[in-house]
Design goal:
alpha/beta, 2 domains, ten-stranded mixed beta sheet, 9 helices
Length: 270
C-alpha cells in the first residue's frame, strides 16, 4: 500500500510539472501559404511550449488554409487576404488577429528611397518603365510579382486591374516570399511587393508618400495591407480556442509585432 501511495504521489507531482493542458494526444493542425506559415509557426512554437499541445503545419498555395479547413485536413487555416462579405463559406468562422503591411522592395543599389502612390500605380500599370523617370539610374523597371495573395490585394488597393500587361515581370518557382527578395537582390532594376517583416538585408524597403507602414497610418494614408486571418470550422475544439486566445495575449501580440505585423486592436481605423 505504501508503494502504491508513493507512486500516486509521484504521478501527481509529474502532472503538476507539465504545462497547463498538456496531453500527448492533443494536436492542432494549421494549414496556410508562404505568406502566413512563418508567423503561424512562431505563434505555434510559443503556444506548444506554453501548453504542451503539439502544433503541426502544412504549407500550400494561396488560401489553401481555407480549403484545408473545409476539407477537414486542418483545424486552423491561416490566410493573409481581405475577405469581403460572402467570400468565405458560411460554415467557417474567421478571426482577424492582425494586419500584414505590404511594402515595396528594391535593389539596395537603387538610389530611389520613396514613391508617391501615383508613381507606384504608374509602375504597376507600365506607364513608368525606367528608374530615371523617378530620379534614379537609367535602368529599366523590372516588376517582381511573386506572392499571389499580395499581388491580388495590391491590384485592388492600387486600382490597377488588368494593367501592366507590357511591364517586364520576373518570377521563380518555389517560395514566393524568399524568391521576391532573391530576384530583387539580383536585379538592379527590380521592384517587388513583399509583406513587411519578410524583407531582409539584401533588399531596400521604399517609403510610400514619405512613410513606412505603422499602426497609425496603415489603414489610412499608407493603405497597403492584408488581414491576417485565422479560419476555423463552426465548432472549434478547446485547444483551438486556446490557441486563438494565445494569439491575442500579450505574448502572442509580441510575436506578431516582432514579425512587423500589427495586432488588430492596435490599428487605428480610418
Amino acid at each position: 500500500m505504501t508503494n502504491i501511495r508513493h507512486l500516486l504521489c509521484l504521478m501527481a507531482i509529474s502532472s503538476a510539472l507539465l504545462p497547463l493542458g498538456a496531453r500527448a494526444e492533443e494536436q492542432i493542425r494549421i494549414a496556410g501559404d508562404p505568406c502566413t506559415i512563418p508567423l503561424a509557426m512562431k505563434l505555434g512554437e510559443a503556444f506548444e511550449k506554453k501548453t504542451g499541445v503539439k502544433v503541426v503545419y502544412e504549407q500550400g498555395s494561396c488560401r489553401s488554409g481555407v480549403s484545408s479547413v473545409i476539407d477537414g485536413h486542418a483545424d486552423i487555416g491561416v490566410s493573409t487576404f481581405n475577405f469581403s462579405q460572402g467570400q468565405l463559406h458560411n460554415s467557417l468562422l474567421r478571426r482577424i488577429i492582425g494586419k500584414a503591411p505590404i511594402v515595396m522592395v528594391v535593389n539596395i543599389s537603387n538610389p530611389v528611397d520613396n514613391l508617391t502612390k501615383s508613381q507606384l500605380r504608374d509602375i504597376l500599370l507600365g506607364k513608368i518603365r525606367n528608374w530615371s523617370q523617378l530620379g534614379g539610374k537609367d535602368i529599366h523597371v523590372k516588376n517582381v510579382m511573386l506572392p499571389p495573395c499580395v499581388v491580388e490585394t495590391m491590384t485592388h488597393q492600387t486600382d490597377t486591374h488588368g494593367g501592366g500587361a507590357n511591364l517586364s515581370k520576373m518570377a521563380l518557382t518555389g517560395n514566393p516570399m524568399t524568391n521576391t527578395n532573391l530576384l530583387v537582390a539580383e536585379n538592379e532594376g527590380a521592384i517587388g511587393m513583399q509583406l513587411y517583416g519578410y524583407d531582409d538585408d539584401s533588399v531596400k524597403v521604399l517609403q510610400v508618400d514619405g512613410v513606412l507602414p505603422d499602426a497609425e497610418n496603415l489603414t489610412g494614408s499608407y493603405g497597403y495591407y492584408e488581414d491576417y486571418n485565422i479560419i476555423t470550422g463552426a465548432n472549434p475544439s478547446t485547444q483551438v480556442k486556446e490557441f486563438i486566445e494565445f494569439t491575442e495575449s500579450e505574448e502572442g501580440r509580441g510575436i506578431i509585432v516582432a514579425m512587423k505585423h500589427i495586432p488588430e486592436d492596435n490599428v487605428r481605423i480610418h
